[in-house]
Amino acid sequence: MRKTPLWLMMVLSAVLLVQIPQEACAKISIEEEKRIGAQAAAEIDRKEKVTTQGEFARRVREIGEKLVQAAENRDFQFTFKVIDKKEVNAFALPGGYIYVYTGLKKAVETDDQLAAVLAHEIIHVTNRHWARQYEKAQQRNLILSLGLLLTKGGKNVRLLAGVIDFVEGNKYSRRDESNADYDGMELMVKAGYNPDGMVEMLQNLSKVSKDTPRLLAWTSDHPSIRQRIEAAKKHAEEIRKRQNESTAQ
Q1: Which residues fall within 8 angstroms of residue 193, CB to CB, at 6 or more apart?
Q2: 116, 138, 216, 228: which one has the fewest Cβ atoms less than 10 Å from its Cβ?
Q3: 249 in a structural domain
Q4: Which of 87, 114, 54 is nearest to 215 (CA)?
Q5: Higher pLDDT, 56 or 144
Q6: How far is CA 123 from the centre of its chain?
Q7: Is 200 inside a domain boundary?
Q8: Taking a C-beta distance cutoff of 8 angstroms, is the pair 80, 67 a contact?
């Protein structure tokens, strides 16, 4: 796992290490996800070199918007931005804020491969993976050391999960990562992209990770990158078979 940026450590170090109170152990609503994501996105936009200009940013935005239209999910309003850093990574904040690092350009050669990255991140949002992981952490009644403090009027301060560190480091479960790959491929097909782009993208990331293992957070999760490649190959074959059967009818 790559080193957390100094500015992020400074932000997170200001958060108290406290036990989550029992009354706070409630499900996260979509509106709460949006509010938390917006606050985290504002912090990233302020601290990082974020851009929506340039050819790569244009491709990210156009492909992302095409995928969102195909997803037909109206619960979230998505934004797509590029962070000017050499790290090979992408992440999505709760609420629909998706960021791609410029370093990813060396791992994605085609629009299909870039669509695979973005579809994966979109699914993390639409399937509400962050909210599920946060709720699990609450249920286990853990002491969360990385979080964001949100206040509203004179109400009690609430401790929320360490959103930025969590999603930037892709700390999702094995199930969520597999789900994002699987549903991401289905979304790619709906948007008109070749599902083999997911296989190719994962293969490219595997090659890049041999040179920059610390930087490649996207392949540092479970299941392993090899397992993800094999699962993507199998799913692509299933999709082609389904398409052939549909054409034959």
Answers
A1: 67, 111, 112, 115, 116, 119
A2: 138
A3: no
A4: 87
A5: 56
A6: 8
A7: yes
A8: no
| pLDDT tens-digit readout, 23-36 | 445 678 999 899 98
Q: What is the CA radius of gyration of the chain?
A: 18
Task: Give the number of other CB atoms < 10 A from CB of residue 114.
Answer: 25
Q: What's the total number of domains in the chain?
A: 1
**Which is nearest to 76 in space by CA: 12, 138, 126?**
126
Domain of residue 58: give its range.
17-242
Distance between CA atoms of residues 244 and 197, nearest Å:
19
Residue 219: pLDDT band (50, 70, 90) is: low
List of residues 6+ apart from 14 with CB closer than 8 A: none
Q: Is 236 left (phi over 0), alpha (psi -120 to 50) or beta?
A: alpha
CA distance 97 to 134: 18
The Cα–Cα gap between 189 and 200 comes to: 15
- pTM given for the model: 0.76
| Burial class of residue 233, CB neighbours in 10 A (0-12, 13-18, 19+) | middle
Q: Within 10 Å of residue 143's Cβ, how many Cβ atoms?
A: 10
Q: Is residue 11 included in any domain, yes or no?
A: no
Question: CATH no. for residue 221?
Answer: 3.30.2010.10
Please state, in angstroms and rounded to a whole number, the distance separating the CA atoms of residues 33 and 53. 27
Q: Check if the beta carbon of residue 65 is closer than 8 Å to that of residue 8.
A: no
**Residue 5 domain-assigned?**
no
Q: What is the dihedral of CA 179, 220, 237, 126, to 10 degrees?
A: 30
Nearest Cα to Cα of residue 232 among 201, 192, 187, 191: 201
